[in-house]
Amino acid sequence: MGCLGINRTAPCYQGAVPLYTVNATTVEQVQETVKFAAKHNIRLVIKNTGHDYLGRSIGASSLSLWVFHNKSIAFSDDFVPDGADQDTKGIGAIILGPGVIWDDAYRAADDHGVIVVGGSGPSVGASGGYCQGGGHSPISQLHGLCADNVLQYTVVTADGTVEIANAFQNKDLFWALRGGGGGTFAVVVEAVYRTHPPLKTIQVATYQIYFKERETRHKLIKDWLSRQVDLSQDGWSGYAFIQDDFLKFAFSLTDKDWIFAQNSISPFLDYAESFDDAFVLGVVNTYSSFWDAYAASKLRMEDKNAGMNVVLGSRLIPRRNLETPDRVEELADALMKAQDASRDYGNPNAYFLSQIVAGGAVANGSSTETSVHPAWRDALMDVVFSSMWEDDLPVEEQQVVARQLTKTIQILRDITPGSGAYFNEADPGEPDWQFSYFGSNYPRLKKVKNMVDPKGLFLCNKCVGSEDWSDDLTCRRSR
């Protein structure tokens, strides 16, 4: 991106780092920046916190519109979208400036006596690509994806105009912003999300299972997968990390008591303890609020690194792949094969993340009101593989690592035909990325893109409409 490797005496090049940045703290500053970029035909990239695995908030030879320092937070107990019918009833809402991070949003919501659907990363922006790309959450099982909870966006469009998009006006744009990806359609300067009543109690099961033998890993993965449907039906959601010698998980259960939680999770733990080479360590803790549970547990995925050398690939796993013993065994074998392939090709610490962040309210969400991949409504799990490398690995070899990850994820694509990948945790080499990220929604998303941004001011890597541009997104391809 900038300096190559770790040689401090080597020349440093600009790479994909924007040439200039506007620190826009007001809507008027956002408008002026957009108008300036459009007038002078300058590539513009939108950034709030910069969390993105595909570099969508940076760009070669670009001007960066940085909205991080607009951090307003407000609440309404009876929010009614602009332009709504007179008989529309108001509902609870949180109103966020574009620079608010989830840690601050969660704290404020707790102080206000409500909860909001957001991410597990505390420093991820609440109004940007996370929610615009779908946004799974520790409480998605209960209240759906973040995109399902959007009530209204205030945006600056490619011509510098301020527009309000909701279910009553600018409906196509509103639909596109609810799952079609950030940095693509407009600059969000205010987001309004539905709030929900506080949780009465939340159980968090945090366990580490260590083992030595490959056969133990295979059997534990298979048993773990076989229980996912039942765990989901009991109300559990959360994250499991699986490596060569351990399985760790942090799962949460809302509005159930400790005894129910322990009885629900114990069969898997008992099975794990039956192996001579396995060691189980963990506990189920009870919390009285979502904020207390989030702040104190592994649901809060905090990483103190400013950045890391990593490429991800993901696959949405349909519920049907977990409903019969044969399909479970097929999936377990595929995960083992994929993990082994990743490790054997220079990734000794290969792991995958098995996330129960679908099902429940996600399955009941609307595929017509949001533009998230319809596969989310059939999925139960989101599986993510990662590949990492050292700072001094040559660029050519980094590219080989990335290509190998694409081959690894193909093992999962082969057993989940018609499903897709999570836009925010996707493989940059994903074949047929338009369908993998957006499914049958892509043609309509492309129409909305051409309608609201006909000149292609807002561009980002593997975003709607980017196929019309060169790989570095600086020149439009000839038609």
Q: Can you put this structure into words, describing what you see?
A:
This protein is an alpha+beta fold. The protein folds into 2 domains: 73-194, Uridine Diphospho-n-acetylenolpyruvylglucosamine Reductase, domain 3 (2-Layer Sandwich), CATH 3.30.465; 202-434, Vanillyl-alcohol Oxidase, Chain A, domain 3. Helix content is 29%, strand content 22%. It has helices at 27-39, 102-112, 129-132, 140-143, 171-177, 214-226, 228-234, 258-273, 290-296, 325-344, 395-415, 433-438, 442-452; strands at 20-23, 43-47, 62-66, 73-79, 91-96, 150-156, 162-166, 187-194, 202-210, 236-242, 246-254, 279-287, 310-318, 351-356, 379-388. The strands form 3 sheets. The chain has a 7-stranded antiparallel β-sheet. Strands 4-5-8-6-7 form a 5-stranded antiparallel β-sheet. Helix 6 crosses helix 10 and helix 10 packs antiparallel against helix 11. Mean pLDDT is 93; it is low at 1-5.
From the 3D structure, determine the CATH topology of the largest domain: Vanillyl-alcohol Oxidase, Chain A, domain 3
Shape assignment:
globular
Largest sheet: 7 strands, antiparallel
State the distance separating the first and last CA atoms.
30 Å
- The figure for the number of domains is 2
SSE-based structural type = alpha+beta
SSE sequence, one letter per element? EHEEEEHHHEEHEEHHEEHEHEHEEHHH
Total strand count, please? 15
Rg measurement, Å:
22 Å
Return the CATH class of the largest domain: Alpha Beta
Low-confidence stretches: 1-5
Mean pLDDT: 93
Pfam families: BBE (PF08031), FAD_binding_4 (PF01565)
Organism: Mortierella alpina (Oleaginous fungus)
Protein name: FAD-binding PCMH-type domain-containing protein
InterPro entries: BBE (IPR012951), FAD-bd_PCMH (IPR016166), FAD-bd_PCMH-like_sf (IPR036318), FAD-bd_PCMH_sub2 (IPR016169), FAD-linked_Oxidoreductases_BP (IPR050432), Oxid_FAD_bind_N (IPR006094)
